[in-house]
């Protein structure tokens, strides 16, 4: 069985199944094929991409997005390294430490740590915007 997308002169498109690729021509020569919408007999086959080509294309797309992911990850790792080298990690009371740094005008300290959504919102209300950094593992 083979599936064709058929198109009539009035641009109606519909799918139809044939036992093989020659059956369409055979039926068309006998004027047995007509548009299911307007019943015209002026119907042509639309070109259909074989499913093999589709899956190849799909794999290619996958490869490309994996590649992009890799570069993206590299960038994130660079970012992580930069933060680790230039920022001080605050394990506990991060939100309070952020306030300390923020309100101390002489402080040039850069800190990083984890904040809950609630803490983030609280800080934001005080005018302190935190930057979210996607933290990627160095492994894998
Ligand atoms: Zn039609």
Describe the structure.
The protein has helices at 21-29, 51-86, 94-103, 117-125; strands spanning 2-8, 13-18, 43-46, 88-90, 111-113. With 140 residues, the chain is α+β, with helices and mostly antiparallel strands. The chain folds into two domains: 2-45, no CATH class; 78-140, no CATH class. The protein has a three-stranded antiparallel β-sheet. β1 (2-8) and β2 form a beta hairpin. It is rod-shaped, with a radius of gyration of 31 Å. Zinc ion binds next to loops.
Give a quick precis of the structure.
This protein has 140 residues and is α+β, with helices and mostly antiparallel strands. It has helices at residues 21-29, 51-86, 94-103, 117-125; strands at residues 2-8, 13-18, 43-46, 88-90, 111-113. The protein contains four helices and five strands.
Attribute tags:
single chain, 140 residues, alpha+beta, 2 domains, 3-stranded antiparallel sheet, two-stranded parallel sheet, binds zinc ion
Strand and helix map with partners:
Layout: E1 2-8, E2 13-18, H1 21-29, E3 43-46, H2 51-86, E4 88-90, H3 94-103, E5 111-113, H4 117-125
Parallel strand pairs: 4-5
Antiparallel strand pairs: 1-2, 1-3
Largest sheet: 3 strands, antiparallel
Strand content: 15-25%
Overall number of strands = 5
Q: Which small compounds were modeled alongside the protein?
A: zinc ion
Number of domains: 2
Overall shape: rod-shaped
From the alpha carbons, calculate the radius of gyration and give it in angstroms.
31 Å
Look at the structure and give the mean pLDDT.
81
SS-derived structural category = alpha+beta
Helix percentage = 40-55%
* Unreliable residue stretches: none
Number of helices: 4
Strand order of the largest sheet: 2-1-3
Q: What is the N-to-C succession of helices and strands?
A: EEHEHEHEH
